[in-house]
Amino acid sequence: MTRTVATLIGSLRGQSFNRKIARAIAAEAPEGLKFEEVEIGHLPFYNEDLESDPPQAWVDFRNKIKAADAVMFVTPEYNRSVPAALKNAIDVGSRPYGHAAFTGKPAAVVSSSQGPLGGFGANHHLRQSLTFFDMPVLQQPEMYLSGVGAWFDADGKLVRDDTRAFFGKFAQTFADWIERTAPRT
Fold first, then answer.
1. Which residues of the chain register pLDDT less than 70?
2. What is the model's pTM?
């Protein structure tokens, strides 16, 4: 059985390190695990007044999350939290109240920075939000990735074999986690 992982990338920049990290993890994924990037930059800001006739972008986003077996969040840290676009995507996917697209889906959180902390604050702030959706979040291996600026070549390819192996271990562990925690249909 193939499991689909909706991948939400907190950085909107096309060549962001987070997008490169997400793609490098997907490249190391075991057979049967398929990562699909779900773009968030085009989502209108959440406003409950729009729920009576939600924007098509919200409907499409919610449907993509609902169709996935799991969700992987890959994010930088902005001011000890997640970027506004990612927070907005979480808000859009969490509504209408009681019908969150995220509810019960296995999740993984990957945070990164060019500095030494690896997005620790964003990682934990995001995890706090995910508990509300009863998402079982993978705990190990922890994915606080620091110094990521030197990890990729000019074409966006991962150049570190040790990191590639670590991403492979993470992807396998996440695949196992999904099998253990995904809701049974």
1. 185
2. 0.95
